[in-house]
């Protein structure tokens, strides 16, 4: 929570995004989006994801739910929306996988 609420959160997310946006399109999708997301998440969540604690569907669930893409949509996240995507994924993890009652009172 402290990392997300920090003043540097936006700048950190945008720096990570630019690192993985190798073609300069200001949008990421697929493997590059997943790598950028993992880099932006706090270390404890990153380790849990990589150890498959949340299941491998998390990658698909987070991007499809965030972008609202279906058969016709694009599973890509833009530069401006990347920090919100990181927050959304953290909230999804907390909501979907946490048994802690405090999740319902989470303010990000």
Sum this structure up briefly.
The protein is mainly alpha-helical and 108 residues long.
The overall pLDDT average reads: 84
Which bin fits the share of residues in helices? 55-70%
Oligomer classification: single chain
Structural class: mainly alpha
Q: Please provide the ordered H/E string of secondary-structure elements.
A: HHEHHHEH
Radius of gyration, in Å, reads 14 Å
Q: Could you describe the largest sheet, including whether it forms a barrel?
A: 2 strands, antiparallel
Q: What's the arrangement of strands in the largest beta sheet? A: 1-2
Helices and strands in order:
Blueprint: H1 2-5, H2 9-20, E1 27-29, H3 30-40, H4 43-50, H5 58-67, E2 76-78, H6 82-97
Antiparallel strand pairs: 1-2
Key features of this structure:
single chain; 2 strands; 6 helices; globular; two-stranded antiparallel sheet
Question: How would you describe this protein?
Answer:
- The mean pLDDT is 84.
- The chain is mostly helical and 108 residues long.
- Strands 1-2 form a two-stranded antiparallel ribbon.
- α2 (9-20) runs antiparallel to α3.
- 56% of the residues lie in helices and 6% in strands.
- The protein has helices at residues 2-5, 9-20, 30-40, 43-50, 58-67, 82-97; strands spanning 27-29, 76-78.
- It is globular and about 35 Å long.
- The longest helix has 16 residues, at 82-97.
């Amino acid at each position: 929570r402290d990392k997300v609420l920090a003043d540097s959160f936006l700048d950190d997310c945008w720096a990570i995004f630019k690192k993985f946006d190798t073609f300069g399109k200001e949008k990421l999708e697929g493997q590059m989006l997943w790598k950028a997301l993992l880099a932006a998440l706090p270390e404890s969540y990153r380790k849990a994801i990589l150890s498959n604690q949340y299941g491998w569907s998390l990658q698909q669930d987070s991007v499809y739910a965030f972008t609202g893409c279906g058969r016709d949509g694009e599973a890509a996240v833009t530069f401006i929306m990347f920090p919100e995507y990181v927050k959304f994924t953290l909230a999804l993890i907390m909501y979907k996988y946490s048994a802690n009652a405090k999740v319902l009172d989470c303010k990000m």
